[in-house]
Amino acid sequence: MAAPRPEQLCFSLLLLLLASIHLCSRLALSHSLVKFLPGFQGPLPFELETGYVGVDESEDVQIFYYFVKSETKPRQDPLILWLTGGPGCSSFSGLIYEIGPLYFREVRYNGSLPTLELNPKSWTKMANIIFVDLPVGTGFSYARTSRAAQSSDLQLCDQAHEFLRKWLNAHPEYISNPFYIGGDSYSGITVPIIAQVISNGNEGGTEQFNINLKGYILGNPKTFPDEDNYRIQFSHGMGIISDELYEYTDTLNKAHILENYCPPVYSPKPLKLFNGRRSLDERFQELHSRKPSPHSALFCRVEAYALSYHWMNDQSVREALHVRKGSKGTWVRCNQGLPYESAIWDSRPYHVNLSRKGFRSLIYSGDHDMIVSFPSTQAWIRNLNYSIVDEWRPWNVHGQIAGYTRTYSNQMTFTTVKGGGHTAPEFKPEECYAMLNRWISHAPL
Length: 445
Hints:
Layout: H1 6-28, E1 29-34, E2 48-55, E3 61-68, E4 79-83, H2 92-99, E5 102-104, E6 116-118, E7 128-132, E8 142-143, E9 151-152, H3 153-170, E10 179-184, H4 187-204, E11 213-219, H5 227-237, H6 280-288, H7 304-312, H8 315-320, E12 340-341, H9 348-356, E13 360-366, H10 374-383, E14 388-397, E15 400-408, E16 412-417, H11 424-427, H12 429-440
Parallel strand pairs: 4-7, 4-10, 9-12, 10-11, 11-13, 13-16
Antiparallel strand pairs: 1-2, 2-3, 3-7, 3-8, 5-6, 14-15, 15-16
Helix pairs in contact: 3-4, 4-9, 5-10
């Protein structure tokens, strides 16, 4: 047999190289439209895209996301990158329980696939939203090596920036849209850092394009180490603890003090979700084996969190969402076992830096949350020492007081949501819809 000619070898190597590049690019960023979802009747009346973006060294971190296109004017409406807290809670929580276009019908699990319904007060009616599973290991995001599975606050922020640039590069029609980054709870630590990383990237002059960063949005945000002191102050002011004892009970729903307390299996906080050190699969099996209740109504709001486990771990759902086979075992809403280092304990310096650069911010607090209480958020904002330009006053929805608000000279608006809990839009969807709609339109609350 004649030896292949040099030009044949070069051509073969070129084909192999092109195939490798194509394979790597597909792995680096893949996305698919989702037109139908199990549990929802008929085609989705909005545009949903899911996919993965590879980041970090050798793109060994594969970040899963849900993108919902604005239902109004997607080419002009703001683009929001949304993170859920934890750390380790899937952004699916933000999508399905807070600000996204769908939610579960709130009935107790009866053995069948949970049913999805439309959320008439979805923030996607006025904004394009990317719900991102970060840090790595959260939701359907995964690492291809044990080293890549290690993460920290600063790594999360760098990965979020890399994710966003790669996503925009693949979706250039959104590069010029006003961009905001948002989140709640633990995201109060990471969101301001991500905003600063994005801003620094814009100013560095080395990026292919600038991200049109306008500001950030935070709900009941963890911010500084002294928050526990204000939790006690809040509890005393609400009549939960006495003058003499000044201590509170563990059998209170801290996410919303007026709501029923639930068993740990239904708790919204990651470290309380399950007891013990059993595997995630064992925990899910315990949840799945619970006998259906003869009563359809939920005794406790957070029982609805259990529905996400039954829905997300159904094979037909994973196929509809285009989850990569074999990439993830049991899906959990909040992954408490992540190898994650909380390295930043105070995000106030980042708020100061962002204020100097002229970015807007909306900080809102559900006023019945005891996890990150509104007095603690008021305190750190007040300690930034910016002058007040719009004094403390009520804001209304349908002629009723929906909360109280104050605006500062650094373009920071603080507002309470009357009757809201730790994730305020979950408890007060109409009021929070009005709040964002006014703020993002530069109108007074």
